Model the fold of this input.
Amino acid sequence: MSNLNFTRLNELLKYDPDTGIFTWINNMGKRVKAGSKTGCLHHTGYLQSRIDGKNYLCHRLAWLYVYGEFPELNLDHIDSNRTNNCIANLREVTQAQNCQNLKKSRGSSGFLGVSLDPIRKNRWKSSIKLNGKSKHLGWYKTPEQAHEVYKTAKLLIHPFGTI
Done:
């Protein structure tokens, strides 16, 4: 196993920053031919490639290829598409900033930042995280109303978020 660096990556792969696709420069055994794409879908939804016996996430390889070093922080896919590794779609962020770019609800409402209030069963609660703490934005008759309030707050306090 090796520690992958910029030089070794450039010996093995070619990266197209406009498409985000990596291709092999040389044949790598019987099944991998020069010019073929590298990267398979990891169970997390990201593309990964096996290089010198070690798995690497392709978006981190793209960063290494373009900037000459692995990112120190997390990489955010701006459009939330985990397979879009175009360099223009990647930005280095903290974990908190990365969480600002969530687009899908993890709750039953179907809307990010909205949940059915457990006490007021007929009201939808809107809230947003700020510095690791939940900030209450109010109760609303419909999840759509609660989500509109959430979107307004998100634009103000989450500069890395996209809606």
